[in-house]
Amino acid sequence: MASSCLKGAFCLVNVLYTITALITAAGAVFFCLAVKEITDLRNYEKYQLDTTVYWPQLLPYIFIAVGALVLFVMCCGCCGVGFENKELLITYNIFITIVILILSAAGAVTVAVAIQESKEFTNETIHDVFKQAQLRVDVAQKFGEFEQALHCCGADGVRNYQRIPLSCCDSKDDITCNDIMNQRKGCIEVANHWIKWIFIIGTTASGVTAFLCVISLVLAISILRSMRMKVVI
């Protein structure tokens, strides 16, 4: 009976941490695409030899890799428990420990470094894109879409423009539009606000996933011990 309860609890926890890991990975994919979309608008000549990888660009890939690793780990765990295979459970314990360490490290880096570094990265990137928008029509159009999506105006605010574009306003009424334009914040400030919250949510999700992984590891060790006791008996 105890063994069945352990197996049931183990499978439930595995499903839960897999769901949280995959949701985090999906969010990381969305964030990667959003970052790439804006960085592709920068001055190519300025960045073509720049091999620096910033944490806002690297962290999402770590969470995506963890999501893929978690699927493999879950398969090892479920097969190990289902077939009562000790080798698979030992493999599971090793890899789930690696997942816990990666998630803990990623969460710590996000809190200690990534949030602050993202401000510098966002500031430099949006300033560069805004300069390109003044020189190229295609970049201006894309930056206008960016302003509409984030409800922001210019890099630092409406003062960046001599003539404020319609992308800084969602209303067709001129009076209302002028009021909205004057209240719009710069895209750097708005982007930093959203990135900060994305990182906070990602860190929280990775913490929840790591916690569930620890519970799963404890259950896996308990199941492994019960299997060894059966062999001795």
Instruction: Quickly give the structural class.
Output: mainly alpha
Biggest sheet statistics: none
Mean pLDDT: 87
Number of helices: 7
Shape annotation: elongated
> Count of DSSP E strands?
0
* Low-confidence spans: none
Gyration radius (Cα, Å) is 24 Å
How many domains, in number, for the residues? 1
Strand content: under 5%
Write the H/E string, N to C. Answer: HHHHHHH
The N- and C-terminal alpha carbons lie at a distance of 17 Å
Helix content: over 70%
Quick recap:
With 233 residues, this protein is mainly α. The chain has one domain (2-232).
SSE blueprint:
Layout: H1 2-39, H2 44-47, H3 55-82, H4 86-133, H5 137-150, H6 174-183, H7 187-232
Question: What distinguishing features does this structure have?
Answer:
233 residues, mainly alpha, 7 helices, 81% helix
Structure write-up:
There is one protein chain. The protein is mainly α and 233 residues long. Helix content is 81%, strand content 0%. It has one domain. Helix 1 (2-39) runs antiparallel to helix 3, helix 3 packs antiparallel against helix 4 (86-133) and helix 4 (86-133) packs across helix 5.
